């Protein structure tokens, strides 16, 4: 069991969507926060309050910089990671997500931190390969995924999912060596942030008033809930466990309709058959290559958008009495935030 609560926390990945909201939550609770950033990078989504954070220049791949930043007896939140569904990023993603996590875990063990929190992803739980999860037009019920889901090798596991799974193995290895730790597995995370990144590209897709919507289900959680859950778990006695964070599951069509309404855009009206999504992503890749931008749709995201999975986010509700924000309010806030040009919540 962790010792008495410190009032200091160290955060990696603090300038990203989830990390920045975790930092803001800790600051609002009166904590002293220190954070890691690469020497050449800015303050990202914390630019407006950068002076309230003690910054360490470094990198999760640079062990001496971690040793200089992580102090004995503190809490450590490891939110740094690379999310990409582009093949060219696979090797870099493996180094950052797996080797980087191993480095942070090892330094935490060496210096003796109070408690370690890892921001993983629901994709780290894997995806069963049987047919019913991949055919929205079938008569089968969606597959439920909870914290007891066992990883199995499957063509539906993306390179990103594999790196998060391997990263979790490093955390569990740390637990076996004496680290007090907790893992969160957020679903697709919505919030106001950098619209070019990861899950928020859904918003850019709606902004461009595209024609098609996929037939699958999407598991969603508010970034504010992710931050609150991480902080509350770190302050609790929970250790050696993982928690899926999912505020609800809705069809992609419903998400697109609600976002479009909030953004005053025309919603996609045509359900894309699977063969259509297989055709769209290569065309989007070519468009992005010519424009030197990130593609709105990749092979991985096109495939995942047709899957029928429901993530069970109830464990944290039972453990902490946690309550998720209504998805309708989250979607409305995010859509309005994009329209207003906001960069953070």
Automatic annotation (TrEMBL):
This is Nucleoside-diphosphate-sugar epimerase. Residues 9-241 form the NAD-dependent epimerase/dehydratase domain. GO terms for molecular function: aldehyde dehydrogenase (NAD+) activity. It comes from the Bacteria. It comes from Spirosoma oryzae. Gene3D superfamilies: NAD(P)-binding Rossmann-like Domain (3.40.50.720). GO terms for cellular component: cytoplasm. Pfam families: Epimerase.
């Amino acid at each position: 069991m962790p010792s008495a609560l410190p009032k200091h926390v160290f955060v990696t990945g603090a300038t990203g969507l989830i990390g920045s909201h975790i930092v803001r939550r800790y600051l609002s609770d009166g904590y002293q926060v220190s954070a890691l950033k690469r020497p050449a990078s800015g303050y990202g989504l914390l630019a407006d309050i950068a002076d309230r954070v003690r910054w360490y220049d470094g990198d999760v791949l640079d062990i001496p910089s971690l040793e200089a930043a992580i102090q004995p007896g503190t809490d450590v939140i490891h939110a740094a990671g690379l999310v990409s569904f582009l093949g060219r990023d696979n090797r870099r993603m493996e180094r950052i997500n797996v080797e980087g996590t191993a480095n942070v875990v090892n330094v935490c063990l060496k210096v003796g931190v109070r408690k370690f929190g890892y921001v993983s992803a629901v994709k780290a739980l894997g995806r069963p390969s049987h047919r019913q999860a991949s055919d929205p037009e079938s008569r089968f019920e969606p597959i439920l995924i909870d914290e007891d889901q066992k990883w199995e090798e499957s063509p539906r596991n993306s390179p990103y999912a594999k790196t998060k799974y391997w990263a979790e193995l490093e955390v569990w290895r740390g637990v076996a060596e004496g680290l007090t730790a907790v893992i969160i597995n957020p679903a697709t995370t919505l919030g106001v942030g950098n619209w070019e990144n990861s899950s928020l590209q859904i918003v850019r897709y709606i902004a461009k008033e595209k024609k098609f919507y996929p037939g699958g289900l999407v598991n969603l959680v508010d970034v504010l809930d992710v931050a609150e859950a991480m902080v509350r778990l770190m302050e609790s006695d929970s250790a050696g466990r993982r928690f899926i964070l999912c505020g609800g599951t809705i069809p992609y069509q419903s998400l697109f309709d609600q976002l479009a309404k909030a953004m005053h855009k025309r919603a996609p009206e045509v359900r894309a058959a699977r063969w259509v999504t297989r055709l769209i992503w290569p065309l989007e890749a070519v468009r992005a290559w010519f424009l030197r931008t990130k593609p709105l749709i990749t092979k991985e995201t096109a495939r995942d958008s047709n899957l029928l999975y429901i993530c069970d986010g109830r464990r944290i509700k039972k453990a902490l009495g946690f309550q998720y924000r209504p998805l309708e309010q989250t979607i409305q806030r995010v859509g309005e935030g994009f329209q207003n040009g906001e960069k953070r919540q």
